[in-house]
Each structure stands twice: as C-alpha cells, then as structure tokens.
Amino acid sequence: MVPRRVAPIRDAIAGPGLFIVAALASALGVAGTYGFFVRTTTGQYIDESALDEAIGVYGKAGKAALGYLDALPTLAVVLGGAGLLYAAIVKRRWFAAAVALSSAVAANIITQALKAYVFTRPFRGIETLMENSLPSGHTTLAASAAAAVFLVASPAKRPFVAFAGSTFAIAAGGATLVNQWHRPADVVAAFLVVAACTAPAGWLIMRVGRRWNAWSGFGSEWAASRLWLSLPLLAGLAATGLAVSMLTRIAPSTGIASTTHYFWTGLSLIVISGYLLCVAGMWLFGVAARRA
C-alpha cells in the first residue's frame, strides 16, 4: 500500500512572520498613540478638547451610553465566555479556547499595568486631569472578549464575528467618550493592546488547530460574505470624511470656534481605528488559513 502523503505545514497555515509583524506594529501603535496624544501639547489639546465637548451631546445618548457601560462587564464576560465554552465543549477546541482566554486575560493585565505603572501624563499647558487614563480598561475588556470569540471561530465564520465584535468594542469605546470617562486616544490604545495580544495567540491556535482552520475563501457562506469586509471599510471611510469635515470647519483660517467638532473628530478616530483593525484581522487570518 502506498502511504498517504501528508500535506506540508506551509499548506496548512502561513508562517508566523505576518503575525509577528502585526503584533509588533500594534505594540508600536500603542507607543505612538501615547507619545503623540499624551506627551505632546498638540496631542493633548486635541484629545482633551474631544473629551470636554462630549458634554455637548450628553443627554439621552449619554444615559444610553452609561447604561451600556454599566452592563459592559457582564456582557463581555457572558458573550466571551459563551463563545469559548461553545468552542471548547461543542467543537472540542479546548486548546484554542485556553489560548484565546489567556490572550484576553493578558490584554487586560497589560492595559492595567501600562495605565498604572508605565505611562504618565505630563503637564503640557493643557488644563486636564493629570491622572493617566491610557489605555481604556472598559474598551480593552470589550475588545478582548470579542477577539477571544474571533480566535476560536472557524475561518468561514471569522469575517462576521470580526465585524460584530469590532462593532461591540467600538460602541464600548464610543460610550466611554460620550460619558467623559476616556479620551479618544485611550480607546485607540486599548484596541491596539488587544491586537498585539491577539496576533501571536492567533498564530498558535491556527498552527496547532490546522485541521479546522480551513475555508474556501470569502463568499463561501453567509458568514464569510464580502459584505462583512465591505461594511467596516465603508464605515471607516465615512468616519474619515466626517473627521476631515469637522477639522476643516475649525481651521485657523476660518475663525470658527469649535463646539462639538473635536468630539466628532475623536469619535471618528475611534471608529476608524476599530474598523481598520477589524479589516486587518480578517485579511491576516484569511490569508493564513488553509484553503479547503
């Protein structure tokens, strides 16, 4: 009998190179976000202005956002836990669930360590609370829960899970801004911390679970529809247009003072960064997965 040929590892999953680059780029993004928005006068002014102007949209939106934030820890634990338990018990992806959980825990620990022991907020002439709030803990909790479910999902389900999870995390980050809990940069840094932890965990999960990390590409089923790739791209472009419009209106040459322009710019930055990482994650994991 002729022995059956075993597919080489390179056919099962891409090498770790792209995942390492993604993790390093995310870590550098955290440092860059801190360096500009916390360590420079211009960055502090933009960030703090967005926070101050949030009072202008507070009202029913603020009450709804506050209710969402109050429920967020429970929502994150329930949704993330349910996804991991389903993967572990029903799909028998015990290793993947353990790695995904470890990644989420690591992201939250790193966020709290950076906020409390590493990053400081120097005075740069901007009237602000001097206590450092970067990265956002609430946003990290929401994003890490979504990322954990994304990691244990099959490749054909990941596009939908990525979009739904990113929307959940963006809503959490936006709610912290509306309620004046966090500045936009705090939210962006939280997204990047989660991305930095998710990338290496993702490669390990796909490397060990290469049998179930196979798909036929975008369009193979409803959850793999290109719609889930198009929606975050369109939302990101719309947010970019809004940010440019807001900043153009308050350019020094116009003589117009900002009322809520910086707020909408900051909210746009949250949407842009959240959905940009969403699309990047879809692409990275889609390229790495084995073709069925």
Describe the structure.
Helix content is 71%, strand content 1%. The longest helix is centred in the first third of the chain and has 31 residues, at 60-90. The protein is globular and about 60 Å long. It is mainly alpha-helical. It is built from ten helices and two strands; from the N terminus they run ααααααααβααβ. It starts with 8 loop residues before the first helix and ends with a strand. It has a two-stranded parallel ribbon with strand order 1-2.
Average per-residue pLDDT, rounded, comes to: 91
Specify the helix fraction band: over 70%
Class of secondary structure makeup: mainly alpha
Overall geometry: globular
Poorly predicted ranges: 5-10
How many β strands by DSSP?
Answer: 2
N→C terminal distance: 26 Å
Which helices and strands occur, and which strands form pairs?
Layout: H1 9-12, H2 17-37, H3 41-53, H4 60-90, H5 94-118, H6 137-152, H7 158-178, H8 184-208, E1 214-215, H9 227-249, H10 261-288, E2 290-291
Parallel strand pairs: 1-2
Tags for this model:
single chain, 292 residues, mainly alpha, two-stranded parallel ribbon, 71% helix
